[in-house]
Amino acid sequence: MFEAAIARSERASRSAPVRGLPFWLFVGLLLFSPLPFASVSAVWPALYGVVLAVAVMLYLVQRWRQGKAVALPQPELLAASGLMLGVILWGYLQSLPGFLPALHHPVWAQTRALLELPDLQGALSLVPERSVQVATHYLTYLVFAWLAFWCSRRSRNQLLLLKLFVAAQAAYAGYGLIVYFAGSEMILWFEKDAYRGVLTSTFINRNSYATYAGLGTLAALALILRYLRH
After folding, report:
1. Which residues contact 214 (CB under 8 A, 6 or more apart)?
2. DSSP 22
3. What is the pLDDT of residue 18?
4. Quick one: which H or E segment has residue 165?
5. What is the DSSP track for 47-116?
6. What is the pTM of this model?
7. DSSP class of residue 189?
8. Gyration radius (Cα) of the chain, Å
9. Angle formed by the axes of helices 128-151 and 43-66, to 10°?
10. CB 3.0 to 4.6 Å from 154: which of 17, 118, 190, 223, for a disulfide?
């Protein structure tokens, strides 16, 4: 009997979801990224990129210490990731000075002529810094998607993430409804400068919040159908 209990305990430990620090860092980003005005400021995607990089490194160390290989998704997702990497690489290439000079934006030639700087190197992008910023944002989104795949490989983790996401959606919706019906034109402790008289929760743009609320509705529907099926 004692040996059988040990065997059951070992099987339960093997089947238990792995929820180390990488998992909870992912949860933190999933739940709190809408809070600071839906993270529209440039500082927030940069911060999230650092957190994601730390989470991925910790996940790889975790797998290495467990002696397990890093899982790869289906070929379709790998192909989609490759295509997105191509877009990201193209964004970075557009910011490189002197890259494909025949295709540079004509404003660079005008700038050289006006400033009398013949050695001024142009780029494919009119604003190279902006191209780097957008490409980095896309890279952050891609890393987030891969971390989501790794964190949700077990069914228990999938269910937990779904419940947490729906709970966060309910919290943001509840806050938005309270502020709206109270007649307040505030987001957190800041006064709205756009979309006054419209429910936006912690978002600035009403369409962005509508999209976010729609995702929450779909996630809640998935939970409802799961419980009805059981």
Report:
1. none
2. H
3. 57
4. helix 155-181
5. HHHHHHHHHHHHHHHHHHHHT-PPP---HHHHHHHHHHHHHHHHHHHHTSTTSSGGGS-HHHHHHHHHHT
6. 0.81
7. T
8. 23
9. 40
10. 17
Residue 34 region by backbone torsions, left for phi larger than 0, else alpha for psi between -120 and 50, else beta: alpha
Asked if 70 and 60 count as a contact pair (C-beta separation under 8 A), the reply is yes
pLDDT at position 92, please? 94
Strand (E) positions, 104-206?
186-187, 190-191
What does each of the 230 residues of the chain score in pLDDT, given as a tens digit? 444 444 444 444 444 445 789 999 999 999 999 988 888 887 888 899 999 999 999 999 988 888 888 888 888 989 999 999 999 999 999 988 888 888 887 888 887 788 877 777 888 888 889 999 999 999 999 999 999 999 988 888 989 999 999 999 999 999 999 999 988 888 888 888 888 888 999 998 899 999 999 999 999 999 999 889 87
**Cα–Cα distance for residue pair 45/39, rounded to 1 Å:** 7
Predicted pLDDT at 142 = 94
190, β-bridge pairs: 187
> Which one-letter DSSP state was computed for residue 198?
S
Task: Name the residue type at position 134.
Answer: V
Task: Please identify which residue in the block is written with the tokens 């400021």.
Answer: 41
Q: C-alpha distances in angstroms, 96 versus 42, 84, 90, 124?
A: 21, 19, 10, 8
Hey, which residues does 191 pair with through a beta bridge? 186
DSSP state of 206: H
Q: Which residues pair with 187 in a beta bridge?
A: 190
- Reported as type and span, the H/E element at residue 131 is helix 128-151
